[in-house]
Design brief:
Layout (H helix, E strand, L loop, with lengths): L1 E2 L6 H12 L2 E4 L19 H4 L15 H11 L14 H4 L5 E5 L6 H7 L4 E5 L2 H9 L3 H9 L28 H18 L6 E5 H6 L1 H12 L5 H8 L15 H5 L8 H13 L16 H6 L1
Parallel strand pairs: 1-3, 1-4, 2-3, 4-5
């Protein structure tokens, strides 16, 4: 299981693990299609997921909901397949693979539910929220909505989350731009997953390590999976541009690549972002490029 956020490197890590393990990839099974067409004839219909009305950020408050349990049991047993299941996986080898990689940009609030119920080996992939925001703001149509509607954005409770998201209501005034909206989303979701961190089956990997200290990230994966992985293949994959990235967006020098947000984010945006860090006691990053790595979860990852 890979937990992270859009523009955070989750696709890169997923592709890397798929290659290392000869695994199948289940890519974004929580993408919420609101209008489900061809429910009766489409073998990859999302109707089964859509009926729960989870929205963009699913959360389950009721641990005794048998219908939800049954749905996720079937999902993880590959009995329920939506239209994204075979999108980035070779369909000829899908059923024969011995390993499955689930990659979520919308699953961070499900982390404690999944770990308590299933205990899957998992990675929480962190990337500097300022870098995520800078990358997102330049990504085109996907994020134009954020630039224009940041004042009205809110996490939305679903019938299955109860009043879970009401705890954020007193802090939405920290969102003063599209940039700070992305930072807010990244910090709240990272912080929530880390606050429920289970060191028995989860590691934290920093995107910055994938770029500048790949041996550190590789060692962390080895410890998690307890397998003899191919470092040369790992290195080749993390240096490869993922299918979800824009062409020619990377710099040859690793630190220059990680520092790109410094030339995009204004001093005001950085200051506003730091207020969000402080509000959620998020200490994995500062206004510097590299992670602080003084969070307790990092020692577990090592």
């Amino acid at each position: 299981m890979i937990y992270g956020i859009s523009r955070g490197g989750t696709t890169l890590l997923a592709e890397t693990l798929v290659s290392l393990l000869s695994a199948r990839l289940v890519w974004e099974p929580f993408f919420p299609y609101g209008d489900v067409k061809f429910q009766k004839i489409n073998p990859f219909s999302v109707a089964a997921y859509a009926k729960f009305k989870f929205g963009w950020h699913p959360n389950v408050m009721n641990q005794n909901d048998n219908a939800i349990h049954a749905y996720f049991n079937d999902l993880f047993n590959l009995k329920i397949r939506n239209i994204r299941f075979l999108r980035f996986t070779n369909h000829r080898t899908f059923d024969d693979s011995q390993h499955t990689v689930y990659k979520f940009c919308f699953g961070n609030f499900m982390y404690p539910y999944f770990q308590k119920r299933y205990g899957f080996k998992s990675v929480i992939l962190l990337r500097h929220p300022f870098a995520i925001a800078a990358s997102s703001m330049g990504f085109g149509d996907n994020y134009n909505w954020h630039k224009e509607n940041y004042k009205n954005w809110r996490y939305t409770d679903s019938p299955n989350s109860g009043d879970f998201f009401k705890s954020y209501e007193g802090k939405y005034d920290l969102i003063v731009s599209g940039f700070s909206l992305i930072v807010f989303q990244a910090v709240t979701q990272f912080s929530y997953a880390l606050s429920h961190f289970n060191q028995e089956n989860t590691v934290v990997i920093y995107y910055e390590d994938l770029v500048i200290e790949p041996k550190t990230a590789f060692r962390t994966l080895n410890n998690l999976l307890n397998k003899k992985l191919d470092y040369d293949l790992f290195l080749k994959m993390v240096k490869k541009q993922s299918f979800s990235s824009q062409k020619n967006h990377t710099e040859k020098d690793a630190f220059t690549q990680l520092s790109k947000w410094k030339s995009i984010a204004t001093e005001e945006e950085v200051a506003n972002g730091m207020k969000i860090f402080k509000a959620f006691d998020f200490k994995c990053y500062s206004d510097d490029v590299l992670p602080l790595k003084n969070d307790i979860t990092y020692s577990h990852g090592k």
